[in-house]
């Protein structure tokens, strides 16, 4: 513990002060001139004061933060020494041997980068130009009119989280008081992001536990009821944590209501390619809104689909209005929005890291590598689908209660929302060494075919024997 200097004015007797009173006193960092028996004489503003050196940290008032509900699970998993342990907490892809996976295309792109001997100079604040170009093309489709008409301001961000945080800062600064509506439930970090950015948020209904499906009526009603001009946060595909996405017809209706209410759609696209195995299919929700000429925000992440978790590579895209009348205004708006995103980024992190941006630019920008990537992504999405099927088969075969587990097959993406409550999830961890988030979510990307039966036993025990 660091030693704290407590300044006690010479006029005040010091020895009898309680620790609390001392802590309330003025903390001094001034240089010392003389020291006798635990007291140090200092000169301050011409007055002589006595400073007591005590073993109290000035950070003592900083309280203990709770562990992160998702990343904290990985920490707890590491500390468990049981051989049967299984980490289904964080959404990170593992091989059938449950090992982390670096995509072959990523290794190839890195080799190319090494051969070229690229430098490590700072990137511009908005990031690598080649990355920004391909990331927007991947999202909207290269021949989408929003790109042809240059209606998108794209800046590289610190993966999905950093991109969302940057957009939140833009909302806070330019739309003061505007609310963000998030789905109930949603990825836990959304609330932290908007809280820290001081952006007010509320929830719209999304998941219906009775049907273990989408509460579409509730969702539409809540979006309708929100004050006009609110930001509506939508998961582009593979909704986290539920794995339940609206159908194409439902997306149309969601777009209708958002348009009617003059809301601004704000997409979080963290799983493009991971829901269906197809990059284009998984971007169809975003493209539907863009094709309607709506203004929208889209955060992108390459953590999952390119396995670049630790490279922190993603982007923030702001699509500006399309009407012919507004064409000139739109051009100006794009430039202005981009300039403000840069202004927000500069004091936060100055400019983004280059390595992941180069990988994405090389993979997406090179037709041979791009095709290889698509094949690897299909392989990853396919492995998750196989595990999903096997888990369902195991549950159905072992559970004699007649419970219908078919909702697991209707969910898509990396996760399954099991419906287990907190006590049941605790039982999964404490008794079975299965690590998962307390909302009942399991990451199927961390499960192997070989472990499905064991997991089914754990789920059946927790579901039927813990209330
Ligand atoms: N959005 C969603 C919906 C999401 O699930 C994640 C990550 C992110 C954004 C951000 O990912 P990034 O690595 O910043 O690009 N989700 C997983 C990891 C995490 O919580 O950070 C997860 O839910 O396990």
TrEMBL record:
UniProt name for this protein: Aspartate aminotransferase
Domain Aminotransferase class I/classII large: 84-459
Cofactor annotation: pyridoxal 5'-phosphate
Coiled-coil stretches noted in the UniProt entry, renumbered to this chain: none
Function according to Swiss-Prot or TrEMBL: Amino acid aminotransferase important for the metabolism of amino acids and Krebs-cycle related organic acids. No activity with D-Asp or D-Ala as amino donors. In plants, it is involved in nitrogen metabolism and in aspects of carbon and energy metabolism.
EC primary class: transferase
GO molecular function: L-aspartate:2-oxoglutarate aminotransferase activity; pyridoxal phosphate binding
TM helices/strands, residue ranges: none
The keyword Transferase is annotated on this UniProt entry: yes
EC number(s) per entry: 2.6.1.1
A GO BP annotation: amino acid metabolic process
Keywords on record: Aminotransferase, Pyridoxal phosphate, Transferase
Assigned protein family: Belongs to the class-I pyridoxal-phosphate-dependent aminotransferase family.
Other observations noted: In eukaryotes there are cytoplasmic, mitochondrial and chloroplastic isozymes.
Presence of keyword Transferase: yes
Subunit structure of this chain's protein: Homodimer.
Superkingdom, taxonomy of origin: Eukaryota
Reactions catalysed: L-aspartate + 2-oxoglutarate = oxaloacetate + L-glutamate
Annotated Pfam families: Aminotran_1_2
